[in-house]
């Protein structure tokens, strides 16, 4: 079994390399994101141990890029903080499991065995509502055959709506899921961004899909209605 360890802290990297080698793995170490991308696309790994905090690309971005480049080896993410958002971001980026630092080697080793047993993950399914489609791992979205050019925030917003078709999402709910908890910017930021997003996904395609529910919030209808193009 071949494992790629992506970690810039020398002590942790050396500990993992020694421990995993003793357990019979072939181990390669990459100390930054660019090296990780090179190794992962050059060689086939059975599993990848990926630290979140790295000098160039962070672990989330690396994971996302690996999936975009059709590298589906299981990924165990090492998160420095025991933060729910880190775990969610990791899983959204296409990681398969996570472990919070500091970790015990025994536990890491057990998690790796479980991931290897499970094998390479399947290509994630696209989110789809009507003819709106979004690929969470590849960070791409389409209306019909037309690819949408969305900012990261608009993309996150569309992803949230696609995960809750037909449901009214309140501004507070949207704010909590697309912005950080501690966001203290302008109060109508949700309305602004919903308007930006709508301008890109509805009128150019002649449909009304993302609707305002007065006094409540916003809803992506289960099916688009004809609108003025
Ligand atoms: Ca690190």
Question: Can you give keywords for this protein?
Answer:
four-stranded antiparallel sheet; 229 residues; alpha/beta; 24% strand; binds calcium ion
Q: What would the principal axes of the Cα set say about the shape?
A: elongated
Low-confidence stretches: none
User: Which ligands accompany this protein?
Assistant: calcium ion
Strands, total number: 12
User: What would you call the quaternary organization?
Assistant: single chain
SSE order, as H and E?
A: EHEHEHEHEHEEEEHEHHEE
Helical fraction equals 25-40%
How much β-strand is present in the residues? 15-25%
Using only CA atoms, what is the Rg?
Answer: 20 Å
Spatial separation of the terminal alpha carbons? 55 Å
Biggest sheet: strands side by side, in what order?
A: 2-1-3-4-5
How would you state the average pLDDT, rounded? 88
Pairing-aware structural class of the strands and helices?
A: alpha/beta
Q: In this structure, how is the largest beta sheet organized?
A: 5 strands, parallel
What's the tally of helices? Answer: 8
Could you please describe the fold and organization of this structure?
With 229 residues, the chain is of the alpha/beta class. Helix content is 39%, strand content 24%. It has eight helices and twelve strands. The strands form three sheets. The chain has a five-stranded parallel beta sheet, sandwiched between helices. Helix 2 runs parallel beside helix 3 and helix 6 crosses helix 8. It is elongated and about 65 Å long. The model has no long low-confidence stretch (mean pLDDT 88).
